[in-house]
Amino acid sequence: MTLDDLELRLSRIMIKLGFGHCAASIYSSLLFRGNTLSLNQLSKNTDYSPTAVNLALADLERNDLVIREKQGRKYLYTANERFIQKFERGIEDLLERELRPFRRELERRTKRIRDSARQKTDRLLENAKDAEKRLMTYIASRKALRGGQ
User: Fold this and answer.
1) From CA 21, how far away is CA 107, in angstroms rounded?
2) Nearest CA to 40 among 50, 28, 52, 25?
3) Does the reported pTM lie above 0.85?
4) 42-63 pLDDT per residue, tens
5) Most CB within 10 Å of its CB: which of 7, 64, 86, 117?
6) C-alpha dihedral over 125, 129, 131, 136, to 10 degrees?
């Protein structure tokens, strides 16, 4: 697998986590190329306009994935390697804000669903419970590896 393949895979993961294409491209490029680059250099490297790069960098900074340092009259950007922690927080957030409330509401409504749709709803509920258990196991194992943080 080449470095370009790794960048592409990381970009796909970031997009699935809700980052835009430009932000994903910038972050993966900074991370794997190990460079500290200016906004204009990032614009040239990624083929996105300086305006798009600026907006994407602001998003990456808000998410603590890019470090900005002033050098002379311009800013230079470096990737913060916290992507995995961000990914894990995203999983925890997905579990707490989406999956658990969905499962609870589905359990509550399943009792009132007519028989023709009941079988599909029961399968969906089992799938939701299974996903919740797997995510909880993953989160617990990662916390154990980090010493319970």
Assistant:
1) 37
2) 50
3) no
4) 999 899 999 999 999 999 999 8
5) 7
6) 160
